[in-house]
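Below: protein 1.
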Amino acid sequence: MIYVTFREPPDMIEFIDGYFNHNYDPAWFEDELVKEMILDIDQSEVLSPNCIQSPVFGQIPPVKISGGVKAVILMLKQDRPIWTPACGDNCTKWIAEVGKIKDILIFVGHFLHFPEDFDAVCVDDGSKIHTRNEWSDCMFKHLVEEVE
């Protein structure tokens, strides 16, 4: 299940690139789901745990993949809240997929467009979210109304 908060949770992974670069396990890149994420988000193919083929940069090490795919991999492989600014809309279907596999807590500070149907709970007010419209209402409530 995806649990979302608009307030900074304790023990959150905030600096995605630095955390990932110093904590990833090469074995993560043998996971078929991780390979699919990298192919979809970065259009890059995992050749080995230490080499990824990017259409833009050629062969790169795992530390050079995008911040968005790093964040989604951390959601799958770690058990800490993740800050989502590195994630664009191309990451949301994968956040939803990870949320089907395990409970994740994400801290959202910007508008994200999730798939039409997904399941989440806003921990700030307990509301359950199942559709893009419910998600939009929740984001508006917490990102816009609370600022005013």
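Below: protein 2.
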Amino acid sequence: MNEFERLTRMSDSVKAAYPKGTRILLIKMGDDPRPIPSNTRGTVDLVDDMATVHCTFDNGRKLGLAYGVDSYRKLTEQEIEDENKTICIEETTDELLDETESSIQTMGM
């Protein structure tokens, strides 16, 4: 197998493991002048032909994670469920605050 075939197989494997929309956890970045903090979560946008996993992180940054240099993993189903529960709680809290604010304004306070 030549180098091109090896790299193609590697990128195909990473593409299969991290399809668009996959939630990940950044464990540690390699040598980056402006690293994203460890334990930051993100969503995979795409994996390119060099097996770089391009993500949008929850802190708003977008960055490609280099295969073999940066450490990351998929979130487990339980972690994703916990995220979804937290989002639902936050949305419900926001709705309640909006309703309370509206009631206060209606009462003329």
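Residues 77-106 form the longest helix (30 residues).
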